[in-house]
Amino acid sequence: MSLHKLSPYGLRRALLAGIRRVAAQREELNRINVFPVPDRDTGTNLTFTLAAMLQSLRHPSPAGVRELLHGLATDAADGARGNAGAILAHWLHGVATALPPDESVTLPVLAKALGLGAAEARTAMADPCEGTMLSVIQAFTGGMQAQAEAGELDLRKGFVAALSRTRIALMQTQHQLKALRAAGVVDAGARGFVELLEGMNELVGQGRAADQTGPALEPPAPGVETFPGSGGGGAGRYLVQCTVDAERIERPVLKAALRTLPAAKIVLAGSRTQVRLHAELNEPAALLALAARFGTVSAQHIEDRRESTPESAARRRRVAIAADSGADLPAEEVERLNIHLVPQRLSIAGREHIDRQTISPREFYAAMRTGPALPRTSQPSPGDFRRMFDLLLSHHERVIDVSLSRRLSGTMQSAESAAARSDPQRVTVFDSEQVAAGQGLMVIWAAEAAQAGLDASRLLEGLAHMRGRTSVYAIVRDISYGVRGGRIPKAALPMTRLLRLSLILCSKGGRLGLQGALWGRHHLPVRFARRIARTLDPARCYRFIVGHGDCPADAALVERTLRTLVPNVDRLWVVETGVAIGAHAGPGSLVIAVQDYAPPTP
Predict the structure, then answer these.
(1) CA-to-CA distance for 39 and 567, rounded, in angstroms?
(2) Which residue, 155, 289, 437, 512, is the most exposed by fewest CB within 10 angstroms?
(3) What pLDDT digit, counting tens, does each position of 566-578 carry?
């Protein structure tokens, strides 16, 4: 049977089929992820990006295809993870923008819109290259446009022909990039896009009912219940929100469990297969852990309500300082300097966690030691940043986000995307070119400068100056975690174990590179600290952050050695190093960040 017009209902069903197919291939996509770095997270990032779109897909169909795609593009932009997620969000936005407001669209109209979508997808990357998702998007677009130019009007036939062309482009990615050729795999992001099309083809091309599995398409029930928990009348510090999906949710049982939470107010809304939870409480992990007992938890959002209270007025200043939780920061300095953190995301055994809010560094390292698979890390989504920026702009003239190095993560790209959608004239994203404790020192300096009254222009000048005076060093005792994560070649593991080497990494130009190694295991923390201290000028004043991967006694030895050998120490903090370095260096790793300190001058 021919299909001459694509309706919102038909597109919604096809996309749901495609999303389910990508989700089923998540681990395979992670396995083949070697470009741009072999961090094996493309499947996870793409799945979480697509999961953000489910909120729009589960609502009743909108008036037209353009309206549906605009909603999906907004959801994808808010929930985008990694390069693949960013490209997908830009592609959807471009296609939606080019469509007319008609309820349904024809093949020629869709083919023309796909051309704009392919062009906008390339703007998602600072350095777009062939052999990636961009290549298969272009191939699919070219295939649909060729069908339209040939006079084909049947969307099913046109889609099948374009998909055939896209499959060929996917296989060609293996020969377009050196890393893919060496590994003998196709690009993971490109494969994910093709899997999305393959799932859609089960409906569009073959007419099969692909929405017989997975969550039922059921709009949320109109009833919304608000009730107190066991916390009495006091308001909690955090507003926590999440969505729970399951084949069947026993609402009375869930409500009874929610009442046990120490929350002032709880809101429960949704259907038998999906509910949305809101609560005000002091321990965000309590709600999320309870929700996980009833189904799959997604769309997690945690907001620190202290910025919305009258008590925060006394602490307001012209410039607010934000950062991602990749920065290792002492908790007391975050509180004292009113630093605002957007958390990184982690996936452990298929369950999403929020860094330092629903999982502590100690729990993270325990999962690394005992889990069958390493935790997967993911940068905050643009939506996470945008919500933070919008909140801060309601209290401050300017916001400066001191970001994890652009060359090490897609975190800065997410922040820049959010800034562009929030208020680009008032939000500035600054590349610290640092990671972990090194980024932490930069964030502290920026927050002290804001507290001292520096305006945004002078503060950014100061940050650029301090960037060249800040370094971070990490010692890796066991490179097996880096090998398992794909960051270190397997061939290096037996050599380091045979020679009993501990590798030392150092930040330079926004990257982490090998600086050297220490032989043997005896007195390793002390020897590491001595090595760093020898590089410092005794006449200058320094700040340090010492980070540890669940080895506090070793960190104490590093602290003691630095205080003994470095005569002018302005401040020295000891923290648990988080996921930015810990995910690759593993338990037992040590970090020393050092800053040739110059105080902010008002």
Answers:
(1) 40
(2) 289
(3) 999 999 999 999 9
Rounded to the nearest 10°, the torsion over CA 463, 466, 467, 472 is: -130
Tokens read off for 148: 């339209």
Contact (CB, 8 A) for 537 and 461 = no
**Residue 307 in contact with residue 395, Cβ under 8 Å?**
yes
E strands, 409-535, are 427-431, 470-476, 501-508, 511-519
H-assigned helices in 468-597: 480-484, 492-499, 524-533, 552-565, 579-585
Give the pLDDT band of residue 59 (cuts 50, 70, 90): low
pLDDT at residue 493, rounded to an integer = 75
Sequence-separated (6 or more) residues with CB below 8 Å from residue 600: 445, 448, 449, 452, 454, 459, 462
**pLDDT for residue 557 is more than 90:** yes
Partners of 507 in beta bridges: 512
Longest dimension (CA), the chain: 82
In sequence order, what are the beta bridge partners of 473? 506, 592
- Looking at residue 50, its amino acid is L
Residue labelled with tokens 């099969």: 208
d(CA 590, CA 577): 8
- CB-hemisphere CA count at 13 Å for 238? 18
- The pLDDT confidence band at residue 428, using thresholds 50, 70 and 90, is very high
**pLDDT, position 1:** 75
CB 574, CB 311: distance < 8 Å: no
CA gap 307, 295 in Å, rounded? 32
Domains of the chain (ranges plus CATH)? 8-204 (1.25.40.340), 218-306 (3.30.70), 470-596 (3.30.1180.10)
CB 437 within 8 A of CB 472: yes
Return the amino acid letter for 98: A
Q: How far apart are CA 529 and CA 129, in angstroms?
A: 42
Q: Hey, which residues does 472 pair with through a beta bridge? A: 593
- Phi, psi at 137, each rounded to 5°: -60, -45
Chain-wide mean pLDDT for the chain?
86
Q: Rounded to whole angstroms, how far apart are CA atoms 188 and 85?
A: 12
Does the pLDDT of residue 121 top 70, yes or no? yes
Q: At what angle do helices 82-98 and 411-422 cross, to 10 degrees?
A: 30
Rounded distance between C-alpha atoms, residue 439 and residue 44, angstroms: 26
Model's pTM, two decimal places?
0.70
The three state secondary structure string of 160-204 is HHHHHHHHHHHHHHHHHCHHHHHHCCCCHHHHHHHHHHHHHHHHH
Bridge partners of 502? 518
Band of residue 211 on the pLDDT scale cut at 50, 70, 90: very low
Report whether 463 contacts 402 (CB < 8 A): yes
Tokens 């569009």 map to which residue? 204
| Closest by CA position to 488, among listed 586, 377, 347, 378 | 586
Q: CB of 349 within 8 A of CB of 320?
A: no
